[in-house]
Amino acid sequence: MRRFSLFRLGALIRKEFIQMRRDRLTFAMMLGVPVMQLVLFGYAINSDPKHLPTALFSQDHSVFTRTLVKGLENSDYFDIVGEARTAAEAEDMIRTGKVQFVVQIPPGFSRDMQRGQRPQLLLDADATDPAATGNAVAGLQLLATTVFNRDLQGSLAAQRAGTSLVDVVIHRRYNAEGRTELNIVPGLIGVILTMTMIIFTALAMTREIERGTMENLLTMPVRPLEVMMGKILPYIMIGYIQTAVVLAAAYWLFEVPIVGSLWLLSFVLFFFVAANLAVGFTFSTLARNQLQAIQMTIFFFLPSILLSGFMFPFRGMPVWAQWLGEVLPLTHFLRMVRGILLKGNGFAEIVPDMAALLAFLVGVSIVALNRYRQTLD
Amino acid sequence: MNQPHASEPADDAPLVIDVRGLTKSFGGTKVVDDVDMQVAEGEIYGFLGPNGSGKTTTIRLLCGLLTPDAGTGTCLGHDILTESARIKREVGYMTQRFSLYEDLSIRENLHFVASIYGLKRPRKIVQETLEKLNLENRAHQLAGTLSGGWKQRLALAAAIMHGPKLLLLDEPTAGVDPKARREFWDEIHRLADSGLTVLVSTHYMDEAERCHKICYLAYGKLLARGTVHDVIAQSGLATWHVSGTSQRRINRLAHDLAGRGGVDMVAPFGTTLHVSGANDNALDAAVAPWRGEDGLNWRKVEPTLEDVFIHMMQGASDNFG
């Protein structure tokens, strides 16, 4: 018994493989997770996002304006998706996140340029995620020095000798210093909640099944909705406590501004936490044991963190990945929490994301209630 | 333990369980196959059968935890197919495996159950239940730290607290010591005396003998039912009880008799042997050569319930296994 026995070791290894094969889900996860990571990191993730939606707010219509628009579109970074007629409209577009940039051409732009007075070209950038805007901003500065060359003929050509014909002024909105923590820390609330809320419920339910207490629960006169809500509501409270902790740390440690309403945030939070708990509840009706429940959570958590815009700019992803991202509750929560905390968004601005979140919550709840069995069949 | 029962239910007592043709399959195998069952009010009905014979499944079908593939009937006057919610309210079910919360104390568990059943003044009812079942001085102990006997007592308390009319007990005494087992059965009889009907599955023959009626299930089929005496008489089994002077002698006899025509079963009990056969004459003929042997004492006895069950199980495996 004292000596190390390869024979005994072999028996243990064989047994482990047999058990692995029996637990199909675990086996699938062992293969599925690497493939998923490969696809997500390899194809979906792009830290140099291009084709960012841009609005044009032009107060000067001239040949230079047209050249600039053409130049912007020819660059990979900007896609002109709309035109703002008033400053308020431009502001609205950037606040709601419809566009990442507003390019503003002030009145008298071409006149000033022809006079060689280096008119200002204003770029309003939504800098809540500095990673998403950095390269595009650099791209515009380069563009501005070269794009007008063809239009400047004759006497104007002389001015080409100068370094730059326009003065590019960049407004990094909501995050003037380009601090990444302003983007990360509020987002972290969503990430932490996704992780913990799903695991809590998924485990709480599978534990009932694994320990056999589910059988007892089923023989008692309880309704599925009661069981589901009984499992979800306590953890919503936990979710609020977690949020309070992260928010307090964000405010005092990381100096994240809290521009918007905390009441609105609490309101959004309720539905976000409920959505995650419903996912956890659904997993618990699928998983046969606690290990499987944890694996399913990971399977949900990984795309959530990668495709939601938490780690990498949402707009940098290919369209299919963006569609996947749009399904995830974290994507919408991130937009709302960043909007509320950094941009001071009110209810009107968060309506589209709120609607998407509610749709997800309702959909998953229906699945969960349908999956929940009142019998042991 | 063959003691007379204080109050056996009257023959005309109304039926609490009345089901016919109950069938349930899992993955193509019929776990419960065309089972009829009638249990009268106030009866202690023993449910016997080997492991995997469908006892648990039958109990689950009765209380609405599983939906039958075929079969009709009533439980407490409610249709088992459509009124399982009402059945659940009036049935107390004690699962085979301890299914209360191990990380809750006894009192917390009972309070939870009382609240789920919507009992009025749960605190008072819990207190009464604790006193009735002598659980009071352990009320704060976590259920997970209790020994088998105490867990079973707690599970029983939880099952009867809401005043059910029918108690379904699925192998309630498995793994419990004899003293706790006897006390448990005394409690069952007390409950039955107060008008409660009890359906209890068990592997223990002494427990079967404490039931008013029993039935025997094997391979999903009901093979026998009635009082213990009825079941033994119906079996038609004849049994010789052989005692020997030495262990070796009994062992050799067992070896010689096993498999002979007319002998269906040879079961050694220490220095005695039970030799049984379905046909009395064939059995006598088979054992005749050894009857006169020295040191062996032959005596014709009534077969025990265990002999009868093992015999039935063998027959069942020939037919259905």
List the defining traits of the structure above.
heterodimer, A: about 375 residues, alpha/beta, five-stranded mixed beta sheet, 14 helices, elongated, B: about 325 residues, Rossmann fold, Alpha-Beta Plaits, 2 domains, 11 helices
User: What's the arrangement of strands in the largest beta sheet of chain B?
Assistant: 6-7-8-3-9-10
- Mean pLDDT of chain A, to the nearest integer, reads 86
The number of strands of chain A is 5
The H-level CATH homologous superfamily of the largest domain in chain B, spelled out, is: P-loop containing nucleotide triphosphate hydrolases
Number of domains of chain B: 2
* Shape summary of chain B: globular
Coarse structural class of chain A: alpha/beta
How are the SSEs ordered, and which strands pair?
The complex is a heterodimer of chains A (377) and B (321).
Chain A (H helix, E strand, L loop, with lengths): L5 H17 L1 H21 L7 E7 L4 H12 L3 E6 L3 H9 L5 E5 L3 H6 L5 E7 L3 H17 L20 E7 L6 H31 L2 H7 L4 H29 L9 H25 L3 H18 L11 H9 L1 H15 L3 H25 L6
Parallel strand pairs in A: 1-2, 1-3, 4-5
Antiparallel strand pairs in A: 3-4
Helix pairs in contact in A: 2-11, 7-9, 7-10, 7-11, 7-13, 9-10, 10-11, 10-13, 10-14, 13-14
Chain B lengths: L14 E12 L2 E12 L3 E5 L6 H8 L7 E6 L2 E2 L4 H7 E4 L11 H11 L5 H11 L15 H13 L5 E5 L7 H16 L3 E6 L2 H4 L4 E6 L2 E6 L1 H8 L2 E7 L2 H11 L7 E5 L2 E6 L2 H12 L4 E6 L3 H15 L2
Parallel strand pairs in B: 3-8, 3-9, 6-7, 7-8
Antiparallel strand pairs in B: 1-2, 1-4, 4-5, 9-10, 11-13, 11-14, 12-13
Helix pairs in contact in B: 3-4
Characterise the protein shown here.
- Chain A is of the alpha/beta class.
- Chain A folds into 2 domains: 122 residues, abc type-2 transporter like domain (abc type-2 transporter like fold, 3-Layer(aba) Sandwich); 192 residues, no CATH class.
- In chain A, strands 2-1-3-4-5 form a 5-stranded mixed beta sheet, with helices on both faces.
- In chain A, helix 2 packs parallel to helix 11, helix 9 crosses helix 10 and helix 10 packs parallel to helix 14.
- The two termini of chain A are 47 Å apart.
- By secondary structure, chain B is of the alpha/beta class.
- Chain B has 2 domains: 218 residues, Rossmann fold (3-Layer(aba) Sandwich); 65 residues, Alpha-Beta Plaits, CATH 3.30.70.
- Helices cover 36% and strands 27% of the residues of chain B.
- In chain B, the strands form 3 sheets. In chain B, strands 6-7-8-3-9-10 form a 6-stranded mixed beta sheet, sandwiched between helices. Chain B has a 4-stranded antiparallel beta sheet with strand order 2-1-4-5, with helices on one face. In chain B, strands 12-13-11-14 form a 4-stranded antiparallel beta sheet, sandwiched between helices.
- Chain B starts with 14 loop residues before the first strand and ends with a helix.
- The N terminus of chain B is likely disordered.
- The chains are: A alpha/beta (377), B alpha/beta (321).
